[in-house]
């Protein structure tokens, strides 16, 4: 039998889906919520959709965020349920080419620096595009491309921000932006950097090995260890701010120094790049104290009303069927079909869009989190967000059969989001004791014999 291990929650996963036919029946309830087909000469098919469900959320595990196949996350927002969500980027910066800024026949005194700008190409945003205060710091600790960095990792940086004084507050925009005065077909976050503490700090290395390349001893990446790009949104209110999706590998993501030769009146520019040889990761900080999620982490019974799943290693939903083995207490059962239906709270006007796909995992005998067997089922594991019905539906047929057969213990399952490392999505599920009409259900269709 094939086993699938949960190695990286940000990895996009695909399941195979086939159509199938099932026996239907008319319901008749008993004390387990079982509905039994009355015609004795037909198959003894049973349908149940009222299994008791216990739901809650649990603090998530840290996840890898280094050199992921996707965007890096930057910014912060305050979620009405989850609290403050914040992400910072750590990245190396590389010279676009070797350079000596000293003009031919002149000196650095002949140069005047007009500006230096950090450009980040934005793919999307999660939240509201309200003003945020941006800070950029020079790292004081070396980064390595072959090292592993997680959502909780951090590196030491120098104390002074490199952002130009008075221009720290920026309102992000997802409309086409400009790079060096030229409109580009991409949203751009432009952060002005201080001419003296950033640009002249680099230009003054002219004539040394620092500006001769990136990878040799004493060269640029060793001397300029990298950047910490972050926000400092003190006093941010609920529903203010957003997590921005920054594509550092895009050609429009770079730092440009604009300068001129005052003798010849030549205007020039020099690029510093982020590329596949740049170590990079983002650090996530979540503060949910005083919010519903924080309260539920302290009191799991609140999950019977609402429970949650969040990307970025935030929180993961947990779901448990305490009476599941009652179905096989005095009888043998084969499950023809088992579906877990999880309604959620989301409206089209809500800026906090739910995750596109969710996965169910269990804890194996080695204590590791692995996908349930239905991930590899020919029926498909489900978990795709159903926009029309505002719910997720999972196929759990193999899993329930193995619990009934005693191959797996009946323990809580975890609900994890796809692309966890590169998106900021979250999901609010209805618990079984919600006052709302739509409640979570485990719908079983099985044969007794």
Structure description:
With 449 residues, the protein is mainly β. It folds into 2 domains: 182 residues, Jelly Rolls, CATH 2.60.120; 207 residues, no CATH class. 6% of the residues lie in helices and 37% in strands. Strands 4, 5, 6, 7, 8, 9, 10, 11, 12, 13, 14, 15 and 16 form a 13-stranded antiparallel beta sheet that branches. A 6-stranded antiparallel beta sheet has the order 1-2-26-19-23-22. The longest helix is centred in the middle third of the chain and has 9 residues.
- Give the structural class: mainly beta
In DSSP terms (H or I, runs of 4 or more residues), the helix count works out at 4
Arithmetic mean pLDDT: 90
Q: Which spans of ≥5 residues are poorly predicted at pLDDT below 50?
A: 1-42
Order of helices and strands: EEEEEEEEEEEHHEEEEEHEEEEEEEHEEE
- Separation of termini? 26 Å
Radius of gyration: 27 Å
Instruction: Tell me the number of strands.
Output: 26
Shape: elongated
Beta-strand content estimate? 35-45%
Largest sheet: 13 strands, antiparallel
Q: What number of structural domains do the residues give?
A: 2
- Helical fraction: under 10%
